Amino acid sequence: MLCIDALAVSDLKPEYLRCEYLENPFIDEKEPRLSWILTSEVRDQHQTAYRILVASKIELLEPGKADLWDSDKVKGSETSQVVYKGKPLLSRQKCYWKVKSWDKKDQEGEWSKSASWEMGLLEKADWNSKWIGKDFSSTTQPIPFKNKELFLPPSPIFRNQINLKEKVSKARLYITSLGLYEYKINGEKVGKDFLAPGWTDYNKRLYYHVYDVTDQLDKGEQVLQASLSSGWYSGYIGYALLIGNPVVRGFYGDTPALRAQLEVTYTNGETSTFATNEEWKVSSGGLLESDILHGETFDARKVPENWSSTNFDDKNWEQAEIINAGNRNLELYPAQPVQMTETIRPIEIHEQEEGKYIFNMGQNFAGLVKLKVKGKAGDKVVLKFGEMLHPDGRLMDENLRMARATDTYILKGDPDGEEWTPSFTYHGFQYVEVTGFPGKPTKENITGLVLGSNTPRVGHFETDHPMVNQLYKNIVWTQRANFVDIPTDCPQRDERMGWTGDAQTYAGTAAINMDVSAFFTKWIQDLHDAQWDYGAYPDYAPAPGVRSTDTYAPAWMEAGIINPYEQYRAYGDTRILEKGWESMEKFMAFHHQKSKGAFFYPEGSFADLSPKGGYGDWLSVGKKTPPDMLATIYYGYAAQLMAEMATAIGKSERAMHYHDLSKKIRTAFSDHYLDKETVRLVTNAAAYGDGKGYVDGQMGFSGNTQTAYANAIYLDFLDEEQKMVAGGHLAQLIKDNDGKLATGFLGAKQLLPALSATGHSDIAYQLLLNEEYPSWGFEIKNGATTIWERWDSYVKDDPEKLASLNNGMNSFSHYAFGSVFEWMFHNMAGIKSEEAAYKTFVIAPEIPKNDINYVSARHESIHGKISSSWKKEGGKLLLEVSIPVNTKATVFIPAKDELDVLLDNKRLDQHEGIQKGNFYKGKQAVKLGSGTYKFESSLN
Ligand code: BGC
């Protein structure tokens, strides 16, 4: 409903109204935060005031009638994190809202279109459904697999028939499960979500979902159906089986259970609730095996015929078991669920041996396939998934380790053909090996379904360099493959856990590519839930305990500080800081205790961990950066972020404390790890003995590594003068290494920014464009469509190398090295946030001399669209930028001198009201408000 206000004179327009980062969501936050994005044709436009109306009915959404909240005119420029301050919100309450803004001249704009949110079930007493389930474990036989055994009980199916006396005006399904659920009404799946209700520490919180199912119900008899699978709750997790952990499955419980209630309002205003209870019947269905890591086996012959029909007689079904699931803390899922976000067609099929066909999907991704098949009852089609092929064309499954990753479909023999998609598993793959297919399959028989948390795409990046474009594509695909309810390390092998080191290093890139505000709201909670009693954050979250020695590690545990900080930086989210503050303080107290109050970690401080020292600069090449030096750097970095976050939430005393701590750590660091004369980073390598027990310890340790300098520069451990000298050492190290990088997980992100910051942009570009091992380009030259775990995961024309790499750890979809995108966005396109949420930002592109002539980047920030694109043309540099309403940017235009810069074809001094800054080091600064601006200058 668009409401044009007769008084509106400003063209300021609020759009994209969201509540708790989601559009028209179901929420359970009692003080939800609202946001909108403003557009205007007027340059340098900003909001000086806003007014929000919230009403319980759409008809009441007018001044004077808004019965829940009328904010009145509130002075201020906020367009996000605006907290609802109206009447207390009740369970099931629907809220309609709209907003208008006043512009810089205090002129009133139009009302926005209306949006809504709806409250979930806020009280425990709102839940009157029972937990139902069925334990099939006594009928389940173990299955031999790779010298071990798998235990995969069949999935129960549930049914209940109800009668709706009247036509329905509103119906909601509130649903959760221990394990994974699928719920259907009259044979039609409710919602589009996969792997719901996601993975959490189920003993601390369990999420439920709400679906509007009004359109799925009619007057009369209805069939309610559900099925369950073990999922993360009772299924296999990670490498527990591989390493011989005493527990390999059932980390949270043994039997899945369902709790759901369908609440119906009839057109006459009466209501009914249809809850899971003892009236529900249960049976086994077609799903004989089902597990996230191991895949599914579905026998279509075993699906009870017509069970979705009201004529079905369920007298032979058993009564559902009522499960005592304890008093769980139920909360509404706070993010975009996992959904199918794209479909993919195979690009080729080859018959690898008789009856064995390999489908190449052309892209490595996470998800499933939909199988289309026609054949006899009992025909059995087996689908195996892999990311790579052996040189002889066989599917490579060695790198999946103990993940069986196999789906099997047994046909019922429908003469019209059959279609099947698994429900409760997913795989990371590019290739599908198909056996048992009746006849010869064609490309029509397999469709790839891309699954992932449905985070909106907000970033775009393009250049005129094909390899760089492919790299960006690979980064985005790897993010899509690993943002599956939690940020996983990889989607294919028996791991898929929320490794904290990977997530902290990639968080900045993630937020440029996708709107991960809600996604990380969820995972940061998982992280807090997994914090150890003694204060350290874990190696991965959730942390069910797949190996007793997986405790904490430097630079992994700091995710508990870095991820909330990145959330604040990207979205201005202070609530997440407030909520997590106590937990973060506890972590800092752990550091204090662990470092014995010494403000640094000498060599050997983490020798009690396994591996010793933690994971360090994981998967680096050559000599290892001392883990304790990195631990000190991350301690200091955490202290610095704590100071900034304390300031953001008004804790000035804590801000001072952490500021002081951060300084002390930096001093202690240079006293111990810096040779102040030469500005060389040093370590007592002898303290590590023969390196036994440390990751790659046999290679020896040195302070003089790329990763050490990159971190010390990037994370501010040196003063300005020292930084420049250290930048020189870093540049020299790269030269000495034949112009190649040597960094692992803790240096790959920092390396290029550290070079740029110390005047070596040319070397940063050289590293980006390098195609020899180790480099990003090497992966692409070798056919990568996603980011690899290791720099040398695969070598195209070297079958032997491939064979030797089929080792225990070789994922082709690992996002950590994709964090180089931060530099691409910040330095190539030049867009860098200053104040949180891009309230103010910088556009300072670094133009390389050669190889790249065009870069274009865009980011839909919480304030609106930011873009920077430049090209070289006829000796000129053309730069176009856009700056959203309500923000300010300082643009640095490379030029000969200030007279060399044209803005919209006029010299800067011919413009009125343009805030010109200094000309410094070949760049002219201009401070601009919102709008799109075109600059032209001479290429140097
Ligand atoms: C994971 C990593 C993780 C690491 C710890 C690996 O198995 O795949 O990405 O961070 O363990 O070093």
From TrEMBL:
Residues 167-342 form the Bacterial alpha-L-rhamnosidase N-terminal domain. It comes from Cyclobacterium amurskyense. Keywords: Hydrolase. This is alpha-L-rhamnosidase. It catalyses: Hydrolysis of terminal non-reducing alpha-L-rhamnose residues in alpha-L-rhamnosides. The keyword Hydrolase applies. Its EC number is 3.2.1.40. Signal peptide: none annotated. InterPro entries: 6-hairpin_glycosidase_sf, 6hp_glycosidase-like_sf, Alpha_rhamnosid, Bac_rhamnosid6H, Bac_rhamnosid_C, Bac_rhamnosid_N, Ig-like_fold, Rhamnosid_concanavalin. Residues 457-827 form the Alpha-L-rhamnosidase six-hairpin glycosidase domain. Residues 830-898 form the Alpha-L-rhamnosidase C-terminal domain. GO terms for biological process: carbohydrate metabolic process.
